[in-house]
Amino acid sequence: MAAHQDEPDAQAACRRGDARQASAGHTQKKARASRIDLFFLDECGFSPTQPTGYSWSPHGQRRLVAYEAPKGRRVNAIAAYRPSGDAPTLRFQVYPRTLTSGDVVAFLATLPSGERPCVVVLDNAGIHISKQVRRALPSLHRLGLSLFYLPAYAPELNDVEAVFGVIKGYELPERSYVTLQGLLVAVRHAFLRYRRRLNRKR
């Protein structure tokens, strides 16, 4: 009997999933046709010492990367990546502190172009679904911006995650930074280099 009682809920969940998938596909088609601006948004943190990757050193010598304690010296970035439309675009802001919902709202307000509707895809992180964000929705809607929340635990559906991977893995050649200011400058330059490469693809 319990299985029969659960069945309508399961069917309803499937229908919601199908509708969400159809809506996402329709949104992406409009983005490719430049009828909307479709951004993928998320945040990323950077420690003074980045994870080590591949490197070179003289034969018989080990390459050492100095370790810097991250306490109070992390840099956080919020970024929005638009892969479709007339040209790929990357918008970002970098902060030497923890990000807040106010930072998210301020950043979202910079994304609409005013020329076409703007849809922002993001996950259900606390600073994305906070009361402050919900209170800002009417003013964001008036700017032409709508939010599209991803299912839980689905980072692979957010295209900006691949951008973060390239920036962390390739655009920060120095793997350790002695000062917070040095890390802040390096992260900004890494995002700028990635954006310049996007611009060259136009």
UniProtKB/TrEMBL annotation:
Source organism superkingdom: Bacteria
Residue intervals of the Tc1-like transposase DDE domain: 38-176
A Pfam family reported for this protein in Swiss-Prot or TrEMBL: DDE_3
Listed transmembrane segments: none
UniProt region (Disordered), positions on chain: 1-29
InterPro entries tied to this protein: RNaseH_sf, Tc1-like_DDE_dom, Transpos_IS630-like
Gene3D superfamilies xrefs: Ribonuclease H-like superfamily/Ribonuclease H (3.30.420.10)
Record-given protein name: IS630 family transposase
Organism: Archangium minus
